[in-house]
């Protein structure tokens, strides 16, 4: 079942035939999937301008995967070699059964379980509960330190101070080192790059600047609004002497730097547009409504939900996931002339 845009159709198997097929998640470009991004909800209490429309329509609850379905998918992916799981959304902390999801995924024995959040609902009590349930790491998103600008970017009343409290709550609960994500958009927050980088020193955090990608629901992305990784790094290096770090893993999404004066924390850039890491990509995404998206920029979606609800056994799910993975595109092609932005925005894919 391949879902393209709004239509569905049945496709022949694209991965090697059943007899030769590996029970790993391997694509036709030789990449192996080890990381699963699981979007547990499409809902959000923010409406970030670079992500979600103010009048977004969320999927009806019946179309969203249940906790049982999510855990079944993660279990099958684990059996096929997935080691890391990141819970995302939408805003994952809005899910009423988040703790059960964390405990369930942790109980499946994945080696690394992380969560990406806007931080608005992350209190010290919540952080302790999620840690006790098995959460290992947290990434908090914060694009500005100015309350006015935060209101403008997120269209919410959550101030930056609240998100910094969330960072402190994670550190207090032992969910560190915390990663802090900031999307840099020209004319919006590039003047704050140095102040945001300083958060790395203050909190011993990994401050990661993300190049603005054409995944905004307003479709307002244009290259003139992109602040390149090169520009971001040169701004940071003009303030502090920075030492480039080796990449821990080839598939790591960020290029990282340490402060040469020995201060704690690191600064990284996720250069998805100008220095894509597609060649070493090890990720697969499952949307909250149960579609497999082999790439953020996939134009194809594989309808796993229908299969899950049709009584398919694990062998069938594995074959389906192997097929979906096999067709993973070589790269996102943002800079290519025929590039078309995917229909789903970031919030509906799971960043
Ligand atoms: N709601 C959570 C949050 O904001 O952290 C998790 C989901 S959000 C879609 C995951 C990450 O995607 C966030 O760090 C967000 O800043 C990033 N993101 C959203 N839209 C983006 C875009 N158009 N370009 C680059 N990053 C984007
Ligand atoms: Fe919500 Fe995260 Fe998208 Fe902002 S980036 S609208 S917080 S899903």
Q: How would you sum up this structure, described in words?
A:
The chain has 10 helices and 14 strands. It has a single domain, classed as Alpha-Beta Barrel (TIM Barrel), CATH 3.20.20.70. α2 (98-107) links the parallel β4 and β5 (112-117). Helix content is 28%, strand content 18%. The chain is an alpha/beta fold and 351 residues long. It has helices at 67-79, 98-107, 124-133, 147-154, 160-172, 193-203, 229-239, 304-308, 314-326, 346-349; strands at 2-4, 7-9, 35-39, 84-88, 112-117, 137-141, 179-184, 206-211, 242-244, 255-259, 266-270, 283-286, 291-293, 300-303. It has a 14-stranded mixed sheet. S-adenosylmethionine binds at residues 44, 50-51, 88-89, 91, 116-118, 141, 181, 183, 210, 212-213, 215-216, 346-347, 351.
Provide the fold topology.
Elements: E1 2-4, E2 7-9, E3 35-39, H1 67-79, E4 84-88, H2 98-107, E5 112-117, H3 124-133, E6 137-141, H4 147-154, H5 160-172, E7 179-184, H6 193-203, E8 206-211, H7 229-239, E9 242-244, E10 255-259, E11 266-270, E12 283-286, E13 291-293, E14 300-303, H8 304-308, H9 314-326, H10 346-349
Parallel strand pairs: 3-4, 3-12, 4-5, 5-6, 6-7, 7-8, 8-11
Antiparallel strand pairs: 1-2, 1-14, 9-10, 10-11, 12-13, 13-14
Helix pairs in contact: 1-2, 2-3, 3-5
The structure holds S-adenosylmethionine (SAM) and iron/sulfur cluster (SF4).
**By CATH's scheme, which homologous superfamily applies?**
Aldolase class I
What ligands can be seen in this structure? S-adenosylmethionine, iron/sulfur cluster
**Approximate shape:** globular
Q: How many runs of DSSP E, i.e. beta strands?
A: 14
Judged by helices, strands and strand pairing, the structural class is alpha/beta
Work out the count of structural domains.
1
Total DSSP helices: 10
């Amino acid at each position: 079942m391949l879902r393209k845009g709004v239509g569905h159709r049945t496709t022949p198997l694209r991965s090697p035939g059943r007899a030769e097929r590996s029970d790993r998640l391997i694509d036709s470009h030789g990449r192996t999937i080890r990381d699963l991004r699981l979007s547990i909800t499409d809902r959000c209490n923010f409406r970030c301008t670079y992500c979600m429309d103010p009048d977004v329509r969320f999927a009806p609850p019946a179309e969203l995967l249940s906790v049982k379905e999510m855990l079944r998918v993660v279990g099958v992916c684990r059996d096929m070699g997935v080691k890391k799981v990141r819970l995302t959304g939408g805003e994952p902390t809005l899910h009423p059964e988040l703790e059960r999801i964390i405990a369930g995924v942790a109980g499946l024995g994945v080696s690394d379980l992380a969560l990406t959040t806007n931080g608005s609902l992350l209190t010290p009590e919540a952080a302790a509960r999620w840690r006790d349930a098995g959460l290992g790491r947290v990434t908090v998103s914060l694009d500005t330190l100015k309350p006015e600008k935060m209101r403008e970017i997120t269209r919410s009343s959550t101030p930056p101070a609240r998100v910094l409290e969330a960072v402190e709550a994670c550190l207090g609960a032992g969910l560190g080192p915390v990663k802090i994500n900031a999307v840099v958009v020209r004319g919006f927050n590039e003047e704050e790059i140095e102040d945001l980088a300083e958060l790395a020193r203050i909190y011993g955090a990994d401050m990661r600047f993300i190049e603005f990608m054409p995944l905004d629901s307003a479709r307002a992305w244009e290259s003139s609004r992109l602040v390149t990784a090169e520009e971001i790094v040169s701004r940071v290096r003009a303030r502090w002497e920075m030492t480039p770090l080796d990449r821990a893993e080839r598939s790591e999404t960020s290029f990282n730097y340490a402060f040469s004066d020995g201060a704690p924390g690191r600064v990284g850039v996720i250069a998805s547009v100008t220095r894509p890491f597609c060649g070493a990509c090890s990720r697969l995404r499952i949307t909250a409504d149960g579609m497999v998206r082999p790439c953020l920029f996939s134009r194809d979606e594989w309808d796993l939900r229908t299969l899950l609800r049709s009584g398919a056994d694990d062998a069938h799910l594995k074959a389906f996931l192997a097929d979906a993975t096999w067709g993973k595109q070589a790269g996102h092609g943002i800079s290519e002339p025929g590039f078309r932005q995917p229909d789903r925005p970031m919030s509906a894919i799971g960043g």
